[in-house]
Design brief:
six-stranded mixed beta sheet; 24 strands
């Protein structure tokens, strides 16, 4: 028989995903019978969550971080989480209906994309997470709870909470929140910028505390923040600045390799609050001086800070989550908080800010931009594969940002570079999702990026190419207006460097350029779910092969009569100086011929 593409990963039918869920649920219930079911009820953002632990192991590991949310139930739960591990219960996890290469870094499982059944596998903790949104049932499994990393104890069941909150119109955020009788300040940004310092300085300064790591935000109808975990995390070196937390450490023997985890409940029960109205949004930075102060920052900077650090860690995040964050950023005055080295100035400055009348607070911030029509703008995941192209990366990312598209995530996949790629990524002006792999070719690098995308739409930009101005907005308008199409594709304009003018200049007719530049199009995610990913057996011409398969399966598409990519030709291009044989022209033709033969004679073996 003709072999399938090595990178084909078909979407699993919902019936298969539901059957897998039910099988795992049956195993979870058996585990509870074997190890003993222990129930806890949590009140989170107005929903009642029943957590059923199979035995004491995971109950003892997870309950302390959630203790401040525990209630005695007075009604039926809205959702039930079944939490178990095989080592304690003696019940094995059923075999999944997907191969190992479907697993992604964020936790999504490629091909398991049911809107009803959510599924994720987290490499860092080797956990399986499942949820049936229709029935309100979640499942969390690990092989042995004793092997869980420290952050699982500090912020347990995060993925299940994320799915359930999103289902209820709320949003999990990677952020901190503190406040007083006037309201709360939401503090967001990537790791290491000062969220925990801000939250813990305010806690020790007598203010109300909701979170320093993960929390929940909703509109009630005004923006409101909800506490999720009664823990805090900090770099061990910070303990010198916060000695009052030393007795509350939960992982003292492991501080040489882990962040310090502090259990705040019940020691700080009088300052831990479950919910507060939000008054402002801020992103911190360390000021390098004694005093703490506030300054102006653009809405889009705040929006990107909140979205990137949150959605890069939460499986099945996508457009609706970006829209929520954009709405939040547009509803709250946004500021930058410059943190002084004198910790006492942090709560003092935040108290002064929160007591301001709303109109004065709004005057301090830049005018809140509208959510930039994001409700009608799908999230675009831009995949940038790179191999020894560190010198081009900053310009490529700047080109993506210059598109002024409001909902975009950038994924950079390093294909075994030997140049200064780490330094190039560190110097980028924005956060990107950065993945590494051994050198395996552009097809494998693009596939790695595709499987970790969040967006409904996917675009590709080789690191040395550029898009024309407004390209993403234009392509999104065109593809968004044609729901029947799976992708659209334009032409590439070749450019060569002119030593006399010290600039790249157009050369040749775009209509006569190579017709299959993958970066000249915009693709719905379902296109790759329908026909598979790029063929990793092909180091070159993987784009031609993909377009051939799309044509053979009559994937709905449209060729645009416009230039949608600028290709800069130079000596470092991967295809420079390659012959047609080296560029796999014959192999691509042979693969297409084999597929046609297999379709015409399905009972004949390959090669006969």
């Amino acid at each position: 028989m003709n072999r399938p593409q090595s990178t084909d990963i078909p979407s699993q039918p919902e019936a298969v995903q539901l059957a897998f869920f039910d099988t795992v649920l049956g195993s979870a219930v058996r585990a509870e019978g074997c190890a003993g079911a222990i129930e806890r009820h949590l009140d989170l953002a107005g929903t009642l969550i029943r957590v059923v632990y199979a035995g004491e192991g995971l109950c003892s590991a997870f309950s302390p971080a959630l203790a401040h949310l525990e209630v005695d139930p007075v009604r039926s739960p809205d959702v039930s989480f079944h939490v178990w591990d095989s080592a304690l219960a003696g019940v094995a996890m059923p075999l999944p209906p997907f191969p190992r290469h479907c697993l992604t870094d964020r936790g999504d499982i490629w091909g398991m994309n049911s809107r009803r059944i959510r599924s994720a596998f987290h490499w860092s903790e080797s956990s399986v997470n499942l949820m049936d949104l229709e029935r309100g049932i979640g499942i969390y499994w690990v092989q042995d709870q004793k092997l869980l990393p420290y952050w699982c104890h500090a912020s347990p069941l995060r993925t299940l909470f994320h799915w359930w909150m999103t289902h209820n119109g709320l949003q999990l955020l990677h952020a901190a929140a503190v406040g007083d009788e006037h309201g709360a300040l939401l503090v967001t940004g990537k790791g290491g910028v000062g969220k925990s310092t801000t939250a813990l300085a305010c806690l020790t300064g007598g203010m109300r505390y909701l979170a320093d790591d993960y929390l929940v935000v909703g509109f009630d109808p005004e923006p409101r923040v909800y506490s999720l975990y009664a823990t805090a995390k900090m770099e061990p070196s910070q303990l010198e600045r916060f000695p009052e937390f030393e007795p509350l450490l939960t992982n003292r023997p492991y501080l040489d390799a882990e962040k310090a985890v502090v259990q705040l409940w019940p020691a700080y029960r009088d300052r831990l609050v479950r919910s507060m109205p939000l008054k402002a949004l801020a992103t911190p930075r360390f000021a390098g001086e004694g005093n703490t102060s506030f300054g102006r920052v653009s809405t889009i900077v705040l929006q990107r800070a909140a979205a990137f650090t949150t959605l890069s860690q939460l499986p099945h995040s996508g457009h609706c989550n970006y829209v929520f964050i954009a709405r939040l950023a547009s509803r709250l005055p946004g500021l930058e908080i410059a943190l002084g080295w004198d910790l006492a100035t942090i709560p003092a400055a935040i108290r002064d800010l929160l007591r301001l009348p709303s109109e004065d607070l709004a005057a301090l911030a830049l005018p809140s931009a509208p959510p930039q029509d994001q409700a009608s703008r799908p999230l675009i995941s831009v995949v940038i594969p790179i191999y020894n192209g560190a010198a081009f990366l900053r310009e490529a990312v700047a080109n993506v940002l210059a598109q002024n598209y409001p909902a975009v995530e950038i994924i950079v996949v390093d294909d075994g570079s030997t140049d200064a790629i780490d330094e190039a990524v560190a110097q980028l002006p924005v956060d990107v999702r950065f993945f590494r792999q051994a050198n395996s070719g552009a097809a494998a690098a693009r596939n790695r990026g595709i499987k970790d995308t969040s967006g409904e739409f996917i675009a590709f930009l080789d690191v040395d190419d550029l898009w024309p101005d407004g390209n993403l907005v234009l392509l999104t308008d065109l593809l968004g207006g044609r729901p029947d199409l799976d992708f659209i594709h334009g032409y590439a304009q070749l450019m060569v460097y002119n030593d006399a003018t010290c600039a790249f200049e157009y050369v040749g007719n775009p209509r006569e350029s190579f017709p299959y530049y993958i970066g000249a199009g915009l693709y719905r995610r379902r296109a790759f779910e329908a026909i598979g990913l790029f063929d990793t057996e092909l180091r070159f011409a993987e784009d031609t092969d993909w377009f051939n398969r799309a044509a053979e399966q009559q994937l709905p598409s449209e060729r645009l009569d416009m230039v949608t990519l600028h290709v800069r030709r130079h000596d470092a291009n991967m295809t420079a100086g390659k012959s047609m044989v080296e560029l796999n022209a014959l192999r691509v033709f042979k693969k297409a011929l084999d597929r046609r033969r297999a379709a015409a004679y399905p009972d004949q073996s390959e090669g006969r």
